[in-house]
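input
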Amino acid sequence: MIRRVPLWGWMLGLGAIALSLRLADLGRIHGLVFDEVYYVPFALDYLQGTPSFDAHPPLAKYLIALGIWFGQWPAAWLGWPTVEVEGILVSPLAFRWLNAIVGATIPVLLAALAFSLSHGYPPQRRRTFTLLAGLLMTMEGLTLVESRLALINIYGLALGLLGQWAWVRAGLAEHPSRWRWAAGIALGAAVSVKWNWAGLWLGLLLWEVLTIYGEHPLPKSLSPRERDFEVSSGAPSPSGRRGWGMRVKPWRRQVAYLGVIPLATYLLLWLPHLVLTGESLVSIHRQLWSTHQSIGAGAGHDYCSSWHSWPVMVRPIAYFYERTDGIATTIHAMGNPVLWWLGTAAVLALGLGWLSRQVTGESRWAGSPSGAVVPFILLNYLTNWLPWALVSRCTFLYHAMGMAALSTLGLAWLISQWWQHPRDRPLALVLLGAIALSFLFWLPLYLGLPLSLESLHRRWLMPGWI
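output
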């Protein structure tokens, strides 16, 4: 019976679960939480035509403003509670609902990326990998918290994953240019949320460079004539057989798809802000750069966490805390601990395994369609993590959302491998059960549910979590 359910049906189910978790009692925390104190006023300023300066590009504030604009009518009709923000009454549901919907797409987008990446594997392995990627991401805590508040990071992650999926999907399409256009637009939009989401763009760019100038991931079963045809043209071979997804294209196309289109998208998304303020693009970017340079010179924050601590989640962030008569309500921006740690272990295991194969000569960069999966995960994990070593300013755990998504993908890849072998399937079931129990145990901290002080303290496994 289970196998009769089509893959898209399972994806819709996971999306529905993710959405229900994000919409459940969304307006119960009445008032502005954490950086909502900045982003909601910024969004309202756009609605009034008087945008204020922010240290990040404008796209996410446009979207929060759009959510408020669409949400004002149901808020009035249904009598949603409101909070006063800079003299304007606005409902928390109105400025949070769009974030919840966008956040619910992230498990589906990661599953779609897994499905396209694993082209060339047996259908059952591909299906298992896809389902596990979506399921594990549904149980990820940090993205759940970010989706339930009017914060901006969730837009960057969703758009970045959309761009990565579209790029990989292009290699399997009859008309790849359409998908590459979509990828370029999505990646440019992701950077227009926050500059740090360029890590997902950088991962694809480096991937293309390595697959072009390294060993090219075409199936070994192709004849020399077919391989020469695909490498030179980027089109299907005369026999109608297609290579994996990353066929060599002329470098001018690469520059357009991963250079010109993202840059043009980024610049065009500034236009509404520039029209309203009368500023120039150059002056606003000088101001942004100066602001980011000065942030590192100021005092630290109680919840700062260094980039090297993110793989083990040493310091999550308390977004909200309220205590009344021995009952505490808190919203903690933290990942699912078991999923987070297993994801880090999976990336380490995949990395060591890949390096050992390079040393022994068992494989090169990506010599088969399926051999591209692990290098893709590792490379994108690193481009979303290591650049933070160059940042001297105070950083936070939410900056690790990109690498958390890639480590989840890596864990799904390993578990899907174990699932195929009856001897290893019990291990896969134990890990999935531990992740699910961990998610349920820490769920009150993601949703802001009341807990006794004793129950809350049991959830502080590390000193830095308080």
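quick obs: The longest strand covers residues 317-324.
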